[in-house]
Amino acid sequence: GTGLNRPVAGIHAAAIEHINKTTCKVISIDMPAGLFANKSSIGNPIVKATNTLSFGCYKLAFLLAENEQFTGKVEVLNIGLSKAFAEKETTPFTITEKKEVQLLIKPRSNHAHKGNFGNALVAGGGSGKMGAMVLSASACLRSGVGLLTVAIPPSGDNILQTAVPEAMTITATLTPELLQQFTVIGAGPGWGISPNTQKQLQFIIENFHKPMVIDADALNCLALNKDWLPKLTANSILTPHPKEFERLFGSSNNDVERLELAMQKANELNTVIVLKGHYTAVVLPDGNVHFNSTGNPGMATGGSGDVLTGIITGLLAQGYSSKEAAMLGVYLHGLAGDIAATTHSQQGMRAGDIINSLGSAWLEIINNKKSAK
Amino acid sequence: GTGLNRPVAGIHAAAIEHINKTTCKVISIDMPAGLFANKSSIGNPIVKATNTLSFGCYKLAFLLAENEQFTGKVEVLNIGLSKAFAEKETTPFTITEKKEVQLLIKPRSNHAHKGNFGNALVAGGGSGKMGAMVLSASACLRSGVGLLTVAIPPSGDNILQTAVPEAMTITATLTPELLQQFTVIGAGPGWGISPNTQKQLQFIIENFHKPMVIDADALNCLALNKDWLPKLTANSILTPHPKEFERLFGSSNNDVERLELAMQKANELNTVIVLKGHYTAVVLPDGNVHFNSTGNPGMATGGSGDVLTGIITGLLAQGYSSKEAAMLGVYLHGLAGDIAATTHSQQGMRAGDIINSLGSAWLEIINNKKSAK
Amino acid sequence: GTGLNRPVAGIHAAAIEHINKTTCKVISIDMPAGLFANKSSIGNPIVKATNTLSFGCYKLAFLLAENEQFTGKVEVLNIGLSKAFAEKETTPFTITEKKEVQLLIKPRSNHAHKGNFGNALVAGGGSGKMGAMVLSASACLRSGVGLLTVAIPPSGDNILQTAVPEAMTITATLTPELLQQFTVIGAGPGWGISPNTQKQLQFIIENFHKPMVIDADALNCLALNKDWLPKLTANSILTPHPKEFERLFGSSNNDVERLELAMQKANELNTVIVLKGHYTAVVLPDGNVHFNSTGNPGMATGGSGDVLTGIITGLLAQGYSSKEAAMLGVYLHGLAGDIAATTHSQQGMRAGDIINSLGSAWLEIINNKKSAK
Amino acid sequence: GTGLNRPVAGIHAAAIEHINKTTCKVISIDMPAGLFANKSSIGNPIVKATNTLSFGCYKLAFLLAENEQFTGKVEVLNIGLSKAFAEKETTPFTITEKKEVQLLIKPRSNHAHKGNFGNALVAGGGSGKMGAMVLSASACLRSGVGLLTVAIPPSGDNILQTAVPEAMTITATLTPELLQQFTVIGAGPGWGISPNTQKQLQFIIENFHKPMVIDADALNCLALNKDWLPKLTANSILTPHPKEFERLFGSSNNDVERLELAMQKANELNTVIVLKGHYTAVVLPDGNVHFNSTGNPGMATGGSGDVLTGIITGLLAQGYSSKEAAMLGVYLHGLAGDIAATTHSQQGMRAGDIINSLGSAWLEIINNKKSAK
After folding, report:
1. Which tens digit of pLDDT belongs to each residue from D244-288?
2. Chain B hits for C166, Cβ within 8 Å
């Protein structure tokens, strides 16, 4: 394997084609031949390995969905490469491991009261999609928020109050006075993209002057009203999956381009963009990107994103910075999913299981227990 | 014991009559005298054993409900019969054990997203029977589906959204455009057989061109409109219990005849027929029949069938073939029931317990743990 | 201690008075002085012991609430009394222990389907009391019933379908044709005593010709219409607590009189009367009384009786006789309560915990595990 | 460290200022210099320690939120101070430990029925805040109450009956006759402060002549109608958090003043005031104050107070005195929170987790198990 910077051609390309026709196990050393470490290789001849044994550290290529077909299962081996050299190298890309996340956790003062942990509002819910708010609210409550209110259409009132008794509900029109009470607003789960929803989102963006979390249909509403993007309060957090990202910022030719576009937009808009995927990328306005290391494909299930919105909103409410809330939030979310999978399996888990495992995830980070994975 | 092909008569019949009057424990060797191995023996003189110790492999007779009165508890002993001989014998009948099911499981790609696991619709629910949809939807979510929507009458909207937050609901009339979004449709739980329900089923059959799962009242609606049967998309899955089967395809004189009728209909209609019972038979269009080996009589409780519908629908959504989804689905369902019985007992278990044990059932198959039974 | 048959008087009475003024621990041997073994002693001078160490077997007096003030904690010691003698004595009173209950359990046939376990109806629920039906229905499902329908007012429809998805609901007026579908009817939980409820109960009594379970407000309705009592189908089961019993059959001067009245009424009406208390008495039409040995004062909490109704109804549905259903039902109910108390404490348990422990109670009986107590 | 009674000044104050600028770990011995043991020190120069190692017993100062910034983590060391001397000292302030609470527990009579454990009413609930009643009712049920009814607006009826089946609901206007049925009334969770709610509270205060529990919005209604305070039945229990206390009795300059004001008001009004905080103070009419020793900052979350209201109401219903109910209630509440935190973490726990841990908390007290902390 090599990590070159130009496409493989000629006899090497023919060899790759030949290798890719085999039914044998293909093990690539360091990187599959033809795969670039730090830029997209899509369209080039690349070995499709079943396993990749790489050296020293993760390469960017390993973190992108488009390359899983080439790398197969990746293992990074410590071969004694100079650590000092690696640390001199500057890169915007780092992987968030448990030890980084542990440094983020804020200890709780003994005499703290619920006012110390913020007053969060989550806005969303619509016809047939109130469950998204049930999930988001429940996750927010398991993230340490002090007080939680959900803003929902009247038809969701009984649903939310039955399923999430710890949350209060508002079904009336939001006013600027109401908004001022809240420490943070998360918006989007199950909200739909009706003109009325768009109007509500606009109202919140224009009247709430603290960082928000914008997810799901709130992102889709933004995509329909791109002129609102510059109005977002600095350090707001956008949490798109690839399709929502595309609606918002246009399409990309490959995962590397999309990542670069996210980096550009995070900087331009002064927001944190959480680009969701297996290695969710927390893209910061300062140009740095933190790839998350927890989670599993069992979490690719309806409602999983709503849970993340609730978590990040709950963390912001407690006074975590947007960078901290995004990094800690995606790590907790993935770790809770990993814990849920040990009991319910990847296939058998549902989004609610992630919520129920959040307590164990907090304890695993705080008490430095062995990872669930 | 013998496995002859003609009814026992004369002195042998008299001996059987005598044996059946005893209060002693009756142990049959290989098969109870008078019981045919591969055809129905109903009406003939047959020994009623308390235990049957059989040799080499299960006989078809042991898998049919009508013969439990004769065989009592069956145990199949390995007496060193030639395996090569057994494998040369061709039979359409096989028993699905864990090792077969393990080969069916599709590993999940690390970078998979919810779109990779399908977008399922389950249609059903009616006055007083919304719970059937709660169970079916919850089971579908624990089967690995990516996204789930339920189509229900408006009166069920709050119930479903409160009890199953991960599922979205549709209460409006289905349109061809709506149907095209879905990877698979499961229909029937709690649906009733009103003219309106029949109309909806017809609409779905005529406008959805991928395999469906048809259960419960959807089967009963089909029974009222047998001319729709040929319109079923190839490889759709019907999941009747014996009474539903009878309504659909007419009555049979015995279990063997019913099985043969199912084999004929599966072939004619090019559908998979899951004939439910203790050894649920997955009857394939190609003439093969796979008897399931998991499950227990604690699962003979309201809602258990709705759970199965949800599971098979969820598996189809993920890209399992109809054969795979039916075989894996009935196996998972039964295994989850066996696991539930270890905690809740056969008498004490309810259908919801089967759902809650699905995660453990997946893990038991994937990790090759010892069976719950 | 003595077990005489006339009140203590004179110097002995004075001695008892003196003893009862002490603050010392008072230990009675065999029985507290002045307490009759088999008839009421209320009003007489009786020693108030803190502990009673009795010999050979329980006396009737120990099973009645009115004597707890005299006996304190009772322990029965084996002092080698002639077992043969005890067995010659005829008494209508026996205590139901686990070994008796184990003999009642019906094994389940492997090929059983839900039709084999009956089709039960539970009727009840009213304004502000739908929860009683939630509890009763859930308990019925954990008792092995095949199919369960609840008949409730329309205002309870969403509540029941959300909380108990395995049960179907009927909110329409019951008809004779509807009633014929059911194997058993349990009536009363949360029903109220409005004229309309009384009319419904009358309709059921007159049109349903199999044994019923009559509890709570159904008993109170009966008390308002005592002329319906003789119309009860033979072997119906009444499950009054002492106050409901009094409304139905009049007051008694003491617990012994009440028990004797129950014995007379059970015989006259040819019904089973389950007289609820710490040692719940299953009073049979044949004159025998079976005192239950499970349960604890943590079960003295709202909804506990509704749970029992559901259990007994579920057992009748499966084909247990009225005697068996009553004896097994009260035993299971008490044992589940004992199991619940080990996790939730007597103070901390709620009626729903009893339901959730029913599976463990079944397993403890079937597998002959050590008792929870 | 010293425990003087006048502010530190001059060179000592300068030293304190210097110490407080350091980034080193600061350990105070006995008490941080400048901190008064028994009166407020706010505004004075005081050492801000990271740890305080104190001697013999807790000082009042350690129990007040305002001093956490000075003491840091407090540990009290046994240095062999004369116990006899300590016991001669009279102080109104004591800390409630498990051994005190164990003495309060009332054993349950075997033959007890639900009537023995009281008939409680909890009144509350309002638009968007029915969940507070769900939590309060559920907690009441896990505190040993015999029967529970909730008085709520009609819009909360389905929510309460679905989520808390063991409780009955009343949505009609309360009448004096209705009130007489109840052993105790708890009022406030989610009630709002509308004129109608105020009217209801007034009606209850004027027509219910047994001790009540007054919390949350009932306190806020009282604050709007201070002339009702003297009408409170003797030994009623008020459970304000600091802000509610301030609305009711005016502001204080510091925690010591607030405590003294609570002592004065408890005596004047002949009520128990439960001043909520990390060391919740149970302030008795007789001038004594019992500080609670259980609980953790994970309980600083919406709904936690509603849970406490339910617990204390449930204890009063069972016949605990107001002093006992308040002391035992706050201890149970905190202990349940400590147990919940071991599973769900402080950040991940929600108020419902406290309720679910109440059973374990009861068992830990009754069985004298090791504390969760």
Report:
1. 999 999 999 999 999 999 999 999 999 999 999 889 999 999 999
2. 131, 135, 301-303, 350-352
Distance CA C15, CA B365 (A): 74
Dihedral of the alpha carbons of D328, D329, D335, D336, in degrees to the nearest 10: 140
Instruction: Residue B242: name the closest of D274, C112, D363 by CA.
Output: C112
HSE-up (13 A, CA, CB side) for residue C281: 28
pLDDT given for residue A67 in this prediction? 86
Tell me the C-alpha distance between C136 and C159, whole Å.
13
Q: In a 3-state reduction of DSSP, which class is residue B82?
A: coil
Q: Do D158 and C163 touch (CB under 8 A)?
A: no
pTM of the model: 0.93
Q: How far is C174 from chain B (nearest CA, A)?
A: 14
For chain D, the straight-line distance linking the first and the last C-alpha, in angstroms and rounded, comes to 28
Contact at CB, B131 and C366, closer than 8 angstroms: no
Q: Sort out which chain C residues have CB atoms less than 8 A from B277's CB and list them.
A: 111, 113
pLDDT tens-digit map of D31-83: 888 888 888 888 888 989 888 888 877 888 888 888 888 888 888 887 777 77
Q: Is the pLDDT of residue A15 over 70?
A: yes
At a CB cut-off of 8 Å and minimum separation 6, what does D276 contact? D239, D240, D241, D242, D305, D308
Calculate how close chain D gets to C207, using CA atoms only, in Å. 30
Summarize pLDDT for A317-361 with one digit per residue, the tens: 999 999 999 999 999 999 999 999 999 999 999 999 999 999 999
Partner residue opposite C168 with nearest CB, options B128, B297, B298: B128
- Find where tokens 């898998």 sit: B63
Contacts of A145 in chain D (CB under 8 A): 301-302
Q: How far apart are CA D27 and CA D7, in angstroms?
A: 20
**Which residues in chain D have Cβ-Cβ distances shorter than 8 Å to C159?**
158, 161-162
Instruction: Find which of B347, B355, B357 to mutate to test the C interface (most C CBs within 10 Å of its CB).
Output: B347
Of the candidates B35, B24, B18, the one whose C-alpha atom is nearest the C-alpha of residue B71 is B35
pLDDT classification of C372: cutoffs 50, 70, 90: low
Q: What 3-state class would DSSP assign to D118?
A: coil
Which residue in C347, C353, C354 has the most chain D C-beta atoms within 10 A of its own C-beta, making it the best mutation to test that interface?
C347
Instruction: Name every chain B residue with its beta carbon within 8 A of the beta carbon of A134.
Output: 161-162, 165
Nearest CA in chain B to A278: B111
Mean pLDDT of C167-175: 96
Q: What is the CA radius of gyration of chain C?
A: 22
The first and second tokens of residue B315, run together, are 């598996």
Q: Which amino acid is at C364?
A: E
- Phi, psi at residue D225, to the nearest 5°? -140, 65
The per-type count for chain D, helices as H runs and strands as E runs, is 15, 13
- Say what the ipTM of the complex is: 0.91
Q: What is the mean pLDDT of residues A150-168?
A: 98
Instruction: Please say whether the beta carbons of B46 and B32 come within 8 A.
Output: yes
